[in-house]
Amino acid sequence: MEQVLGKEWTISPAGGSTGEAYYAQLEEKRLFLKRNSSPFLAVLSAEGIVPKLVWTKRLENGDVITAQHWLEGRELKPLEMKFDRVAALLSKIHHSTELLHLFMRIEKKPLEPEMILNKLRQSQIEQNQVETNIDVHKAIKYLTEQLPVVQNQRKVVCHCDVNHNNWLLADDNQLYLIDWDNAMIADPAMDIGMLLHKYIPESNWNSWLEKYGVQMDVSLMNRIYWYVIAQSVTFIQWHQKRKEFSQAVKWEETLQSIFVKMHQS
Predict the structure, then answer these.
(1) Which of 45, 209, 223, 236 could form a disulfide linkage to 251, CB 3.0–4.6 angstroms apart?
(2) Band (130; pLDDT cuts 50, 70, 90)
(3) Is 161 noted as a catalytic residue in this protein?
(4) Is Ribonucleoprotein one of the keywords UniProt gives this record (predicted)?
């Protein structure tokens, strides 16, 4: 990063799973730098979804460095995910035609539910756990049976990682959704489902969805459960592959609790 900014800047890692993010400071100037960030960061910045983009530079090796305003703030707490502004911002993202058109221009193919299911099946075969993991076997059977219910739905730009630590509340009280590396064109139920399941009591789902701008119906409920189950299996397989068995067990417990909720509703 020094060759981009100069040696007079103080540069330090900003954490994150990729190790490609940095903080940079020179006297009163402060920037958040990232290598090979989302190609649609400019649109996200223009719509006020992420902190303002300052500049973009392409290096000789082809890497692209982006600089955004470094904002003082904090991530949302889990209990704050019920805020009206969270539902409003997610709805704004899902209804952004500019984002959707940009995704389509860079040839981002929509993520269809059968693509998700096929990947889960293949992962199970590779891990040789089709018979040994009863919960995952049950989940994949459910996803297969319910596949027709979730097909042919409207697709939007989904963030695909709406955990509370990706919501930045700046000191000026502006809310942002950051870290767009996993974003895809998909059914909005993918984002909505995991957010509701993780942070909102089911008795409050209807009121949260009203703030988002939709009404709960049977179709949406089925899609929410389908994607939450699919994402849970994805996490189980991911942790098992990394031999993080305690984390895999937690997601297995999550999967069990989802099936209990479904039987109760």
Answers:
(1) 236
(2) very low
(3) yes
(4) no
The count of domains in the chain is: 2
User: pLDDT at position 131, please?
Assistant: 47
DSSP-based three-state secondary structure for 184 = strand
Distance CA 125, CA 135 (A): 15
Q: Are residues 37 and 111 in the same domain?
A: no
Residue 80 CB neighbours (<10 A): 16
Q: Which two tokens stand for residue 23?
A: 């903080």
Q: What is the pLDDT of residue 5?
A: 72
User: Is the same domain home to 88 and 105?
Assistant: yes
Q: Do 139 and 65 share a structural domain?
A: no
- Are the beta carbons of 229 and 142 closer than 8 angstroms? yes
Q: Which of 263, 265, 234 is nearest to 251 (CA)?
A: 234
Is 146 found in the same domain as 197?
yes
Instruction: Inform me whether the pLDDT recorded for 204 exceeds 80.
Output: yes
Which residues have C-beta within 8 Å of that of residue 185, sequence separation ≥ 6?
Answer: 100, 103, 104, 108, 109, 110, 111, 155, 156, 157, 158
Quick check: 170 and 143 in contact, CB under 8 A? no
Domain that holds residue 27: 2-70
Of 13, 46, 70, the residue that ends a domain is 70
| Structure tokens belonging to residue 14 | 């900003």
Give the global pTM: 0.85
